From TrEMBL:
Spans traversing the lipid bilayer: 158-176, 196-213, 220-241, 247-268, 280-300, 306-325
Record-linked InterPro entries: Gly_transporter, NTF2-like_dom_sf, YchJ-like_M
GO CC annotation: plasma membrane
Membrane topology: Multi-pass membrane protein
Main subcellular localisation: membrane
SUPFAM superfamilies named in the record: NTF2-like
Signal peptide interval: none
Presence of keyword Cell membrane: yes
Protein name (Swiss-Prot/TrEMBL): Trimeric intracellular cation channel family protein
Compartment(s) where it occurs, according to its Swiss-Prot or TrEMBL record: Cell membrane
Length: 346
């Protein structure tokens, strides 16, 4: 049998990238994965391209476009410019040049790719996979709702307009910033999408203008906060999944994104944060994460998963508010405090 050179240029295809494409072994480094993906394009192994993309990004891939790009080009050679296999414990970077002919002229695709390691397997982080329309809608709803809760909290403390805007921005963007810093997700979401910062400021000023017509502000505050809580929980969970993290990290990212902005808001407004009170709050965020993860495992579309989780979590939070459902309270007193309490009682 004739020996066929591997498209990645590292030896015979049968001994090089073919075992990876067949699932007989898996890449031991980000560089090896990148080489095997180049070979997959040359060999039109589209399933391998999809399977080695970050787990949370796979549904967003345009598989037909990938297949067409793979088929329509003649793949010439691959040059690895540089690689950093240890950006941190689970992330790596590879810079490469892919040489190909598009049928008209030779072309060079120069890219700096990032990879993430999850469950001892490397995955490619696709920079072309933008937030889908459903996630953008959830993000817009959550930012608007939380910005309004921040503005209302600032208004209850009689802050000036600048203070209102600052509290609104901290509330709407603080949770996502905390998540991005902890996950190493850069640039920060509001830096990458400055329109979210503008939306926050607009929501704050709109709240100032319409507040005098908003009766029952407490109820409006709780409803908006519930919407923001679940919306940000979904976004945080999805971003962690897109980075290749599993359930535990995604759950933590979702809950942190959901509750951190509210914690910062309440602290700056000298209130006890909602999450630290007896009512169900962070626990509902965690239940929403479980529901979201379950929908993904069932193979539901991203749109249906987001909408279902938003309705489920939002309804659960409103039920908890209406019926006054609470977490068990932990009360601890040392011997001196118990003695003092007994004397006071007597």
């Amino acid at each position: 049998m004739s020996n066929v050179e591997c498209p990645c240029g590292q030896g015979e295809y049968e001994q090089c990238c073919q075992p990876l494409h067949l699932g007989q072994s898996r890449a031991q480094s980000a560089t090896q994965l990148m080489r095997s993906r180049y070979s997959a394009f040359a060999k039109q192994q589209i399933d391998y391209i999809v399977q080695t993309t970050a787990l949370g990004q796979q549904q967003a891939l345009d598989v037909a476009a990938i297949a067409e790009w793979s088929r329509s080009n003649q793949w010439l050679k691959l040059d690895v410019v540089q690689a950093n296999e240890k950006l941190d414990k689970n992330h790596a970077m590879v810079e490469f040049k892919a040489h190909y002919h598009d049928g008209t002229s030779p072309q060079i695709h120069h890219e700096i790719s990032h990879f993430v390691k999850h469950a001892e397997a490397w995955y490619f982080l696709d920079p072309t996979t933008e937030m889908q329309i459903t996630m953008k809608q959830a993000c817009i709803c959550a930012i608007t709702a939380e910005a309004m809760t921040g503005a209302l909290s600032a208004g209850r403390r009689s802050m000036d307009w600048f203070g209102v805007v600052i509290i609104a921005c901290v509330t709407a963007l603080g949770g996502g910033s905390v998540r991005d810093v902890l996950l190493g997700h850069y640039p920060l979401t509001w830096v990458k999408h400055p329109e979210y910062l503008m939306l926050t400021c607009f929501a704050a000023f709109m709240t100032i203008l319409i507040a005098k017509w908003m009766r029952h502000l407490r109820n409006i505050f709780l409803v908006l906060d519930a919407l923001g809580l679940i919306g940000f929980t979904i976004i945080g969970c999805q971003i962690a999944l897109e980075m290749g993290h599993g359930f535990v990290v995604s759950a933590v990212a979702g809950v942190l994104t959901g509750v951190s902005g509210g914690i910062l808001r309440d602290i700056l407004c000298n209130d006890v944060p909602l999450v630290f009170r007896r009512e169900l709050y962070a626990s509902i965020s965690f239940v929403a994460v479980i529901f979201y993860w379950g929908c993904i495992q069932l193979g539901l579309s991203l749109e249906l998963t987001v909408i279902s989780t938003l309705i489920f979590g939002f309804s659960l939070r409103l039920i908890a508010i209406y019926f006054g459902l609470e977490m068990p309270k932990f009360i601890y007193q040392d011997d001196d405090e118990q003695s003092a309490s007994s004397k006071d009682a007597s």
